[in-house]
Structure formats: C-alpha cells, structure tokens
Amino acid sequence: MSERDNRPVLITGGCGFIGCNLADRLAARGDRVLVLDNLARAGVRENAQWLKSRHGERVTITIADIREPIPVIDAVREARAVLHLAAQVAVTDSMADPAGDFEINARGTLNVLEAVRLHNSTAPVIFASTNKVYGRLIDDNEITLTGRRYTPNSSLLADGISENAALDFYSPYGCSKGTADQYVHDYARVFGLQTVVLRMSCIYGPRQFGTEDQGWIAHFLLSAIRGNPLTIYGDGHQVRDALHVADAANAWLAALDHIAMVRGRVFNLGGGPANAISLLELIDRITDLTGRKLAYRFADWRPGDQPWYVTDTRALSTAIGWAPQLSIGDGLRSLHGWLNSRFGSQGNCEALA
Fold first, then answer.
1. 352 secondary structure, DSSP code
2. What average pLDDT is seen over the chain?
3. Looking at domain 9-343, which CATH architecture does it have?
4. Which of 58, 78, 118, 313 has the fewest CB atoms lying closer than 10 Å?
C-alpha cells in the first residue's frame, strides 16, 4: 500500500451518530481514521470510547472545534479524504442562537473547505447536508390526508423529491446548512475540489441517542422504553422517509470509493417511498414492537416543518448502484435492540453527559 493510500480518512463530527458508524465501517475494512470532534453533544464521549475499544490505534480522536481554523488545517493536511459531518443539528437550537448555528454550520464548513483548498486540494470532501434546504416544499392545499398520513396530490411526486427541487431555506438551521451545502457544491465548480453533497433524510439506527429536537425515531423508541410521554409537534400525519444508518454508510462509502464518478454532484439520500412513514404510523409500529402504548400530546407545528418529505433516490442509485437494503421494519428492530440493551434496565435514566 502506498504512503498516500495509508493516510487516514478524516471524519469531522466522527463521534456523533452517523460519524461514528462511518468510522467503525472504515476501520473495520482496514482504513485508518482520524476523528475531529469537540465532544460537546450528549452520547459522543460514549461513542468515542466505543470506537477506541473496537479499533484501538486504527482510530485517532482529536478533540477540536471546526470553528477554529488551525486544528482543522492540521487534520486536513494528513487526510486522504474528508467526511464532513460536524454540525449544529437542531432547528430549535438554531432558533435560540442563530449566530452560533451559523458559525458552526456555515463558517465551520467554510473552514473545512478552505483547509482542503489551500493545504490538500486532491482530498475528496463529502458533506452531510439535509432535506431542510428545500424548505416546507408543499402547501396545505397540495396534500391530502389518507388514513394516518399525508400524501401529495401530484402524481409527479410518486417517486419522492428529486435534486431538481428548488432550494428554499426555512429556519436559521435551513439557512446555515443550505449555505454550507452551496459552498461545498461551488468549491467543486470554482476551485475544482472533489466534493459531493448528500442531502440526508431521517437517518436512524444504533449509536443514536435521540432527543426531542433531533433523531426523532430514536427519541420515540427511547420514550417507549423509558415510559415517557411524547410531544408531537403538528398533527402527527407528517411523513418522512427513514434510512437505516447501515444503508447510509453504504452510500457514503460508495461515494468515497467512486469519487471520480460523483465528484461535483449533489444527491438526495433517504429511504425512499418504500420506507416512508408518518409520526402516528411510527407510534403504531413501536406499540407493536415493544408491547408498550406510547402516551402523547400535540403541540403547534415548528418553523420549517415539512408536512411531507420523501426522497427520490434514483440519481444516487444510478450513479453508484446504491439502494436501501433494510426495510423500516427490520431497521426499527435493529435500533430497538440496541436502545433496549443500552437503556432498557435503567428506566427513566438521566441524559448522557
């Protein structure tokens, strides 16, 4: 193996939910991994310990913040590729602190791009964007309530939302992630960097410590395990497509391994129509899975919440031959097994520090 091939893959936010799953997969297949994480979020220290216990020196963890250019530059210099996942991830937090949200998501991403442009311009950069860049997408008069979910009136949306949908940032979070999304895309066009944008929808699975503000599938399951009541913002009929983290990792690694085929492109990444589910339908499935009936109440819709979003995955499938393998039923059982083993005997345990 050449010296260049042996350089580590840098994962910013690599102790977070998706990041640590990617680090685990890369290390398991023999890649060296350099994680850059500020360890600020709940659960990430546990994920860091898990990675080190599984992979030892194959995974190096550097505690740093992407808002600080120098540690970002130092990490980028030695990387053969950059998977950029470090972010502020909650719409609610962006509403409370728009400036802080911007500094992490927009400025932090620009720091990563500039470090690559100036110090390691051949390193591929794959960026974790979000479906929130499309805004609310559908007006109330464009959807119909069918059973316990909304469905779009237009047959043109039968396969989901494609990358051709107009951008319409909504909420500070949507603006900051949308800004970063466009910077990453433009650095491929203007500076020739090997970048890929993945606009993700509802990734779930093991190592996810779901909260009310982020990771709703894990939050719902964890609430059932702990016996806690839920608050549903909106009417519960809103629909998302869910993608298990194992399938998401397959897409990320395929994009990395075939960067010459996908560089400069933007892809939507989600479970697609086959894995679409409403909040109320998920509650029904959780009741069947756990045997526990979830108590819930309704509250006002939150800014930018989409009544319906389902990913059209055909572009990514065509480009790299990827498709989701885990059904939402199998995926929920996977997540429930992990959450139950981690929290099942602890009842209403305290939040992770």
1. P
2. 94
3. 3-Layer(aba) Sandwich (3.40)
4. 118
Cα–Cα distances in angstroms (integers) from residue 240 to residues 123, 160, 204, 243, 277, in the given order: 33, 10, 12, 10, 6
Q: Is 19 left (phi over 0), alpha (psi -120 to 50) or beta?
A: alpha
Residues above pLDDT 70, as percent of the chain: 96
* Number of C-beta neighbours around residue 309 at 10 A: 24
The domain limits of the chain are: 9-343
The whole-angstrom separation of Cα 53 and Cα 25 is 14
pLDDT at 353 > cutoff 60 = no
d(CA 216, CA 92): 13
CA distances from 61 to 9, 10, 52, 146 (A): 12, 10, 9, 48
More confidently predicted of 296 and 302: 296
Give the 3-state secondary structure of 298-327. Answer: EECCCCCCCCEECECCHHHHHHHCCCCCCC
- Provide the pLDDT confidence category of residue 134 given band limits of 50, 70 and 90: very high
Contact 153, 205 (CB under 8 A): no
| Active-site residue identified among 150, 170, 173, 187 | 173
Residues ≥6 apart with Cβ < 8 Å to 176: 88, 94, 101, 102, 104, 105, 106
CB of 94 closer than 8 Å to CB of 165 = no
Query: Which among 182, 161, 127, 133 is positioned nearest to 314, based on CA atoms?
Result: 161
Q: Is 309 a catalytic residue?
A: no
- What value does the mean pLDDT take over residues 148-152? 97
* Integer Cα distance of 69 and 111 in angstroms: 6
Q: Which residues have CB under 8 Å from 242's CB, separation 6+? A: 201, 202, 203, 204, 217, 270, 271, 275, 276, 277, 328, 331
Query: Burial, 164: exposed, middle or buried (Cβ in 10 Å; 0-12, 13-18, 19+)?
Result: exposed
